[in-house]
Amino acid sequence: MGPCQRASRSLGTFWLRLVARRFHGQHALSRLSPLIAYPKAWSPSTNGTIRGEVVFLDVKTTADLDSYKDKLKGKIVLFSPARNVDPLFDPPAHRQTDEELLGLANAEPSADPPPFQFTAEQGAVEELNYRKWQLIQSEGAAVVLQPSFRDAGTVYVTSSTVPYPPDVPFEKRVQAWDISKPVVIPQAIVAAEQYDRIIRLVARGIPVRLEVNISVRFYDDDPMSYNVIAEIPGTDLKDEVVMLGASLDSWHAGTGATDNAVGAATALEVTRILQSLGSKPRRTIRIGLWSAEEQGTRGSHAYVATHLGRRIDPPDGQPGHARFEFKPEYEKFNAYLNFDYGTGRIRGVFLQGNEAARPVFRDLLEPFKDLGASTVSVAGIGATDHMSFDEIGLPGFQWIRDYMEGNNTRAPHTNIDTFDHVLENDLKQSAAVAAFVIYGLAMRGEKLHRKAFPSH
Ligand SMILES: [Zn+2]
């Protein structure tokens, strides 16, 4: 994958409020209710303030769409039905139990996931959604509102939707950030409970008037994203590289404190600790802070493709048929360790199927048994930057973490991803464990073994 060419955006103005006007005798009573909402990333501006009665796109099949012809122009459209809000029985933060860690230690290597495909049911939902977006665009609606898929005060906001039929693979879709400026309709996410309230009012025949204003500025003068790279040079084995890294980007509803400022800060702290000790590692220790992880690990992909090698996907899309091109630095590369998945402490390491690396990590983590950080699992975990290394056969790993609010449960990509959810003691533990392991990898006699890899 090449560098990510994208426009960036800054938000000038945004508000969304419910304005109900009711008549009491001769007097008009205005009732105003501000709504918790955020524009989706790369949403365009509305044309000034849009005021009006909402239209709920209440469709269950594509045949229902016809009844909305000529009814959406300039309107504020509610995209979906009320969302079912369930009680939060499970605490969002979780320390891995001894039993869970033992399960990870005894796990089998994870099988490669099959190429992604919608089930028939998902395909039908995707097709209907596509047709809804198409209608909304062709009819010239003013703005689209959708409910957050997290609730209880948490609003989950990612990127603006560019409609595609379900049979178009994700990697072929032009996204809202693309400098080719695909057609995107202004769109925002509303707190689930407030969205549901509006839907209930509409369902009872009570007209709901909203006011919304989104004003954004796009910057496309520099469409590049930038990685930050630094290193502590090695000594007798300085051509061999031990790398650590984390993504440096985040989403806009919060500050991205747990996804992934903590990862970048921990990787930096590891480097600072090693530097402040005046360590002279045998191998070079290099840190990479990656841009555009949230757009598909673009920054780490671009780095790996430029310096180490790349996978060329075959026309038939079968993973086994991919070709590989390697750079001279590929041979000398030792290992990459990634920091992601929130603020929870390190509990060990995922080997990504590299059984040969188990004794090395077992030795390096042994001193941290009493900190609960010594689990070594041959299982794999995906969806972040170590995969850019792993997919061309390099040893790329991610730490096993305790999952705090920062993992899949709650904070990432939401308005609550702020400093409040950062755990200082967990991060101190993570930095200490990681500094020791990374220094150990840079000092040991042998280079780390690689797992069996089809073309190498
Ligand atoms: Zn994320």
Short description:
With 456 residues, the chain is of the alpha/beta class.
Major pleated sheet: 8 strands, mixed
SSE pattern: EEEEEHHEEHEEEHEHEEHEEHEHEH
Could you tell me the number of beta strands? 17
Give the names of the bound compounds: zinc ion
CATH architecture of the largest domain: 3-Layer(aba) Sandwich
CATH topology name of the largest domain, in short, is Aminopeptidase
- Quaternary structure state of the chains depicted: single chain
Q: Mind telling me the CATH superfamily name of the largest domain?
A: Zn peptidases
Number of helices: 9
Output the radius of gyration: 25 Å
Low-pLDDT stretches are: none
Round the mean pLDDT to the nearest integer and report it: 92
Helicity level? 10-25%
Major sheet: order of its strands?
2-1-8-4-5-6-7-3
Q: Shape from CA axes?
A: elongated
Report the CATH C-level class of the largest domain.
Alpha Beta
Structural class: alpha/beta
In total, the number of domains comes to 2
**Beta-strand residue fraction:** 15-25%
- Termini Cα gap: 21 Å
Characterization of this structure:
This protein has 456 residues and is of the alpha/beta class. It folds into two domains: 8-102 and 119-219, Glucose Oxidase, domain 1, CATH 3.50.30.30; 225-443, Aminopeptidase. It is built from nine helices and 17 strands. The longest helix is centred in the N-terminal third of the chain and has 20 residues, at 120-139. The protein binds zinc ion (ZN). The site of zinc ion (ZN) has 4 residues, from loops.
